[in-house]
Structure formats: C-alpha cells, structure tokens
Amino acid sequence: MDQAENLRIMMQKKDFVLPHKLPRLISITSGKGGVGKTNIVVNLALALAKLGQKVLILDADMGLANVNILLGLVCPYNIEHLLSREKKIEDILVTGPGGINILPASSGFLEMGRLPESQQLFLLNELEKILAAVDFLLIDTAAGISANVVYFNLTAEETIIVITPEATSLADAYALIKILFTEHRKNHFTILVNAARNSQEAEGVYQKIKKVVHHFLGEPTLEYLGFIPFDSRIGEAVRQQRAVLDLFPQTRCSRYFLEVARLIKEKKTTALAAKRKVLFRKQGLFLSLGEKEMGGEN
Ligand SMILES: Nc1ncnc2c1ncn2[C@@H]1O[C@H](COP(=O)(O)OP(=O)(O)OP(=O)(O)O)[C@@H](O)[C@H]1O
Ligand SMILES: [Mg+2]
C-alpha cells in the first residue's frame, strides 16, 4: 500500500476530523541566499497580526533557526521532541511579538513520511489543534533549489519569491521557478522585490523576471505583490534582534510591510476555498508523503 493510500484510509477513519477552517499556506522563498526572506516573513507576520490575523510561522530553514534569532527568542524544542512525546505541541510553539507563533521544524522533518501510521496520525492531530486557530501559516524556507526547498514550496498553495535588484538574485529566482514548474508543474508564483530604491527599480526587476519566464518557460503566471524598499533600519533591527516593524514602526520599510500584508490579506481566496480538501490533503502530505506524490497538483 503506498503512502497516499495510507493517508486516504486514515482520513476516512473516525479518529481524524477535518478542521472547519484552515489557514492560508504561504511559502516565502528565493533562489539566492541572503535576499531578505526571514526578515520579510517575520515582518509580514507581525503586519498581518496588526491587521487582526492569527499567524503561525513554520521555520523550515533547517540550517539555522533564523526566525527566532531575528526575534531574540529561544526555541529549545522542535517537531522531533513532539514526535518522541517528550513535549506537547504547546511546548514547542514559541510566541513572539504581536502574538505571532513560531513552530520550529527539524532536520528530520522530511523523513516523517516514512513514519508509522500511528505517528503520522498523532502529528496530524497535534497540528490540527493549532491550525484550526490560525489564519496564515507562513513558511520561511532556505534559499536555493534543494529537495527541502522544493518540498516546502510544493506544500504551500501560495509561493512568494523574493528577488532583489541584483542580477544574480534574478538568475537564481529563475532557476527555482524553472525547477518548480518543469519538474513539479507548479505554475503560479508571486513576486516580491526586496531592497529596491524605489518603485521604478522594483517594477523593472519584476518586468525582467516576467520576460525571462515567459520567454523560456511560457506557461507559469507571475503576479507582482509589490516591493520593500532598502532601509538601513532593517540592519539596525537585526542587530537588536527585533522586528523592524516593532522597533521602528514609522520607518519607510515598515509602512511597506503593512501595505504588502494588507494586499495579501485582501487577496481573493474564492478559488482556494474550492480547493480546501485538496489543500488539507497537501497539509497532510507535508507530514505524510514524499515529494513525488505532490508533483502535478499545483
Ligand atoms: N529591505 C532591506 N533593506 C536593507 N537591508 C535589508 C533589507 N532586507 C534584508 N536586509 C538585510 O539583508 C540581510 C539578510 O536578510 P535575511 O536574513 O532576512 O535574508 P534571507 O533571505 O532569509 O537569508 P538566508 O538565505 O540566509 O536565509 C539582513 O542582515 C538584513 O539586514
Ligand atoms: Mg533566512
């Protein structure tokens, strides 16, 4: 019996109940490293919280636990402690500014598809406890085109690709889009330009990636979410291990974070609502199934 079949059987059992409400699942990703993903995740989370939304960040960058470092928080436990029953889900969750929550993943996360059914069911039920109370689940991925990054980007129904005005950032973003599209049929991407000097520069970056994607790949559709300006206050906030929106709410980039969060919140989700069941299966999949199973669904 394959993993998908296992999950279907699990879902039919009475001991697993579909949550009534599921969060919007958004991955924030990039081809090139250091383009500002983690800062964007943290500040968008805070901005969405200011707009009255309940936000959970999944820190899926296995290399370093970046999210908590940026917020000056200690995350002593992760999903592995939950699985080993050493800790409960409420023990591994960490609360940050504005009431945002952080769920630290673990390096063994991708192996979880091979867990026995009882463990998968346990995890799904634990997650269900918190997902029902969350409006947005933001996934902070590592940079690049590793299996790990691909995996989380296929899990998310919405993927925000962060690009800076540097040519290398654009080239690496294209490489990531190419893999997700040609190998996994993901065909819609949202572009957020970071560290631009002004809107003209940011729109120029968007037009370039759009042109390249259209020319070489044809089908994928790109959507422009806007930009976050270069702002030295971000560096200052990083040094102080605080979110810039928290530390300098009036600085230029903070206003843009709020504006982008507003656009994300207001985005029509009618089509997504129709895919609720599929989405849930995907959310199950990210704990239960291998990457291959998810190909072709995006
Ligand atoms: N809009 C901005 N203006 C000025 N500096 C910025 C801006 N965005 C990010 N930075 C700086 O860029 C650096 C990298 O940011 P961040 O750690 O968020 O990137 P990342 O994409 O998550 O990196 P990694 O790929 O290593 O996870 C930070 O030190 C931050 O100060
Ligand atoms: Mg990061």
What portion of residues is helical?
A: 40-55%
The gross shape turns out to be: globular
The CATH C-level name is Alpha Beta
Strand content: 15-25%
Strand order of the largest sheet: 3-4-2-5-1-6-7-8
Q: What's the number of domains?
A: 1
Derived from helix and strand composition plus strand pairing, the structural class reads alpha/beta
**Overall residue-averaged pLDDT value:** 82
Radius of gyration: 18 Å
CATH superfamily: P-loop containing nucleotide triphosphate hydrolases
Bound molecules: adenosine-5'-triphosphate, magnesium ion
> Main beta sheet: strand number and arrangement?
8 strands, mixed
Task: Characterise the protein shown here.
The protein has helices at 3-12, 37-50, 66-70, 79-83, 89-92, 117-131, 147-155, 167-182, 199-216, 232-239, 244-247, 252-266, 270-274, 276-288, 291-294; strands spanning 24-29, 55-59, 94-95, 101-104, 136-140, 158-163, 188-196, 221-229. By secondary structure, it is α/β, with parallel strands linked by helices. It has one domain (3-284): P-loop containing nucleotide triphosphate hydrolases (Rossmann fold, 3-Layer(aba) Sandwich), CATH 3.40.50. An 8-stranded mixed β-sheet has the order 3-4-2-5-1-6-7-8, with helices on both faces. β7, α9 (199-216) and β8 (221-229) form a beta-alpha-beta unit. Adenosine-5'-triphosphate is lined by residues 30, 33-39, 61, 66, 143, 194-195, 228, 230-231, 234-235, 238, 253.
